[in-house]
Amino acid sequence: MPDDAVTAQKSQGGEVPLESLQDPHFLQNLRQQMVKFARLQLRDEDLAEDAVQEALAGALKNADSFARQSALRTWVFSILKYKIADALRHRQRVIASSELGDDEHREQAFMDALFKTNGHWHKAERPTSWSGPQGGVQSEHFWRVFDACLNGLPEKQARVFMMREFIELESEEICSQLDLTTSNLYVILYRARMRLRKCLESSWFSPDERKTLRKEGRK
Amino acid sequence: MMDCKKATRLASESQERKLKTGEKLELKLHLAICSGCRNFAHQVGILRGLARDYARGEEKAPPQDQPQDAGKSSPEE
After folding, report:
1. Of the candidates A59, A105, A153, A206, which lies 20 to 30 Å from A137 by C-alpha distance?
2. pLDDT (tens digit per residue) in A88-145
3. Nearest chain B alpha carbon to A183
4. Domains of chain A by range and CATH?
């Protein structure tokens, strides 16, 4: 690649040129993200490690054709997605279906705690604006909170949410991979978003938490 | 009048499918008078942005906290 092309790329939104793909720090970082991602979906350390190993090995063979780290990252994750889907399909045959299904009682109780019988918010549960001082803070600490909230989702909700929002699969793809109806998918995503936003609001955005978190963030 | 349960369902579904004109209108009317659901509708878009930043490891990017039209799904790049 000519020097001026590299420079041009550098200036575009902080993209990193080709040679740093050999950067062990970048690869190690990428690997960590993949493991975190696979672990959340598979909930199994060994399966996650295997999926990441296979995806990385496959992807890095052709790493030279990627000029940007971000493109490589996207590609590696798209391979990882298939490895995870494979592992899930395999496991689905082994696990009893009840373990994968949502616990309807739990879900009903969760919704009842949010909404009154007339379908309107309980006052304390009404979503508040996230545009306060915490809204602009995207610190390491925030991502730890985000991570914890994701981990707090019921397994199926977490998986579907990640397929939709991390891997950016379309609804039809998720439905066929997980054998869901469209309306099931909508309900699962709705519940996942409801839980995530509630968790983020109470652990990060809510006025009560702000003081303590800001204090922690400073040290 | 649509209740909050229904309104939040539609706001969430607007991330997956184009709402019908009637649904969009009903949702809009509800959001006009309900700040809780308005915040919710805004937050489903923020969640999408956060999830994508997180997955892509762009952990330094600031969150996008600009109001968006809940009747539309968030723009793809």
Report:
1. A153
2. 877 765 544 444 455 788 888 999 999 999 999 999 999 999 876 666 666 778 888 8
3. B13
4. 14-92 (no CATH), 99-218 (1.10.10.10)
